[in-house]
Specification:
Layout (H helix, E strand, L loop, with lengths): L3 E6 L3 H12 L4 E5 L5 H6 L1 H18 L15 H25 L2 E5 L1 E6 L2 E5 L4 E10 L21 H4 L8 E5 L3 H12 L3 E6 L10 H14 L2 E4 L5
Parallel strand pairs: 1-2, 1-6, 2-3, 7-8, 8-9
Antiparallel strand pairs: 4-5, 5-6
Length: 235
């Protein structure tokens, strides 16, 4: 007899939602995660970047205070505190996910899950074990794709993961890639005073969105002093 009805590999938005629902339906469920509960989106992607964008919006409002008939002097911006706030938001949400998993009787297993057979999951961690299960859900998410011409040294060339931990705003920054992540960081850094240039290989920013959206965004960025180089490659 199998140990579990369902074992989910990966605790991102696909994985933890599936695990919670299986638990609600009365299935004996486990979820295996090698890193942070909630996956990349919650810990190092969508959520912390949106928290930082909110900070950037507030900074922008203070800079435009005179437009609203408000006079403010000696305003100071602490980017490190903005980073701390983004991590607090993440910790609050990951705590909520752990609570929901426990509430719905989903066993959380810390380790690297690997398919051993169609009904067996090998978990590698501090203590290795094999889980027998009737069903497997693979929700392992995606991986960061490096740019061949740019080796990440975590000093001059960094990934978005390092950017979400960096407590000081660079004076000048080149962002390679004008997709959603790239333009978010461009706006964030510009609001905190960086000279920002975006390099995008395709003909327009956010190339997966409607062309009209790209035009509006490019005009907005121009007004804010964000430079864009589209149809350009990095060597």
């Amino acid at each position: 007899m199998a140990d579990y009805d369902v074992v989910v590999i990966g605790s991102g938005p696909g994985g933890y939602v599936a695990a919670i629902r299986a638990g609600q339906l009365g299935m004996k469920t486990a979820i295996v995660e090698r890193s942070d509960v909630g996956g990349v989106c919650l810990n190092w992607g969508c959520i912390p970047s949106k928290a930082l964008l909110r900070n950037a919006e507030v900074v922008n409002l203070f800079r435009r205070a005179s437009d609203f008939g408000i006079t403010a002097e000696n305003i100071q911006y602490d980017f490190g505190q903005a980073i701390d706030r983004s991590r607090q938001v993440v910790n609050s949400l990951t705590g909520g996910i752990r609570f929901l998993l426990k509430k719905n009787n989903v066993e959380y297993i810390d380790g690297l899950g690997k398919l051993k057979t169609s009904n067996q999951i090998e978990v590698l961690g501090d203590t290795s074990r094999v889980l027998d299960t009737e069903n497997v859900i693979l929700a392992t998410g995606a991986r960061f794709r490096p740019v061949p011409q740019l080796d990440i040294d975590e000093k001059v060339v960094i990934s978005s993961r390092q950017a979400l931990e960096m407590r000081e705003v660079p004076k000048r920054v080149v962002i390679v890639g004008g997709g959603a992540t790239g333009v978010e960081f461009a706006y964030l850094y510009r609001m905190y005073g960086s000279e920002v240039t975006i390099v995008e290989m395709l003909p327009r920013l956010v190339p997966l969105e409607d062309e009209e959206i790209s035009k509006h965004l490019e005009r907005s960025f121009q007004k804010q002093g964000i430079q864009s180089m589209t149809g350009a490659r990095v060597e």
